[in-house]
Amino acid sequence: DKGGWSSFMAKEISEQPDAIGNTLRGRLVDGHVDIPELTELGEPRLREVDRIIIIACGTASYAGMIGAYAIEQWARVPVQVELSHEFRYRDPVLTDRTMVISVSQSGETMDTLMAVKYAIERGVTTVSVCNTQSATIPRESDAAVYTHAGPEVAVASTKAFVAQITALYLIGLHLGRVRGTLAADAEAEAVRQFETLPEKMAEAVATHEQIAQLAHWMADTRSVLFLGRHVGYPAALEGALKLKEIAYIHAEGFAAGELKHGPIALIDHGQPVFVLVPSPRTSPLMHAKVVSNIQEIRARGARVIAIVEKGDTAVLPYTDDVVRLPLSDALFDPILQVVPLQWFALELSTAKGLDVDQPRNLAKSVTVE
Ligand code: BG6
Fold it and tell me: Where is the SIS domain (predicted)?
């Protein structure tokens, strides 16, 4: 049942405020984050972890990249993110103090399952972030942290992605509390951010109409670039992946600072570039850098579509289109910024007359290696 929407993907994008609310439910207790499934692993085990490796494929790997920033910041453990199918072919250094966190919407992706099994054989603690109750990966893992985003039908992942980021952040906050690395004010601020997130998410979902108009004139576009910095970088990668998956358009995401080291040569007259701009209030340094990146590409003819915090006027002289969001904290911004990018892919796919929910050559869950 598409609930009155033209596609499951549209319905699932619109469900993101609830998806986040469901991931959070029961896990914010008296101003703290508490995940009983992690508590069951035993506090000494959580305290002894000296390295975390996040493994995933596709969209889930970008959720993992975003989650890594938060886990390192709050739990002060080095985190690396690796594609599941690369992980076990390089003889990784694993000890009984390593924690492997797998991220998979379906819980059945064979590449990720085989990587989890490889980790289990080496005595590593395995935690599964999964959206599908009792799937194989969470059953095989030492602990399962379910995202509870509800069934996702469209092949292109949307609400599961924001729920995965949310779950990884909760894991970071839980670990930080147990390990004594999370300052009380940082914890209070993160909890405050979470409490207002579903409401802000609803505002992000409401960008649909504006994005639909934008996509309309871009129906013939052959290539689109996405730029972001820090957590905005994996969000840019996700924006590009969405466009490839369902609109079959060549798209690439770049770290904004990397532009001058090569990709800027791609910028030609009229090249559309989406730029994820951090909040000028809470991330002034990053904001200034991204504004200068925008100036650089604008000077070379790019058509700039900036995703900004409401009230950010510094970017206006250098942009063609501005999408305004209620941003606030660097770590939480990409959860909102990705929503207009999801709408953009959906609308461009629709404008090209494609099947949004069932893109060619792709499956919702890939059960072969
Ligand atoms: C791909 C899907 O094959 O698998 C992507 O097309 C998805 O949308 C990826 O992100 C990973 O899937 P899962 O179920 O492991 O999160």
Answer: 42-181, 214-359
Convert the pLDDT of each residue in 67-121 to its tens digit: 999 999 999 999 999 999 999 888 999 999 999 999 999 999 999 999 999 999 9
pTM value is: 0.98
* Backbone CA torsion sign across 105, 107, 111, 116: positive
Given the structure tokens 């390089």, which residue do they identify? Answer: 90
Q: State both tokens at 279.
A: 């909040």
Minimum CA distance residue for ligand 1 atom 7: 58
Residue 7 phi/psi, 5-degree rounding, is: -150, 160
Atom of ligand 1 minimally distant from the CA of 57: 11
Q: Which residues are catalytic?
A: 364
ipTM for the predicted complex comes to 0.96
> pLDDT digits over 131-178, tens only?
999 999 999 999 999 999 999 999 999 999 999 999 999 999 999 999
Q: How far is the CA of 60 from the centre of ligand 1 (A)?
A: 7
> Residues 6 or more apart from 126 whose CB is under 8 A from it?
99, 100, 101, 102, 116, 119, 120, 140, 141, 142, 143
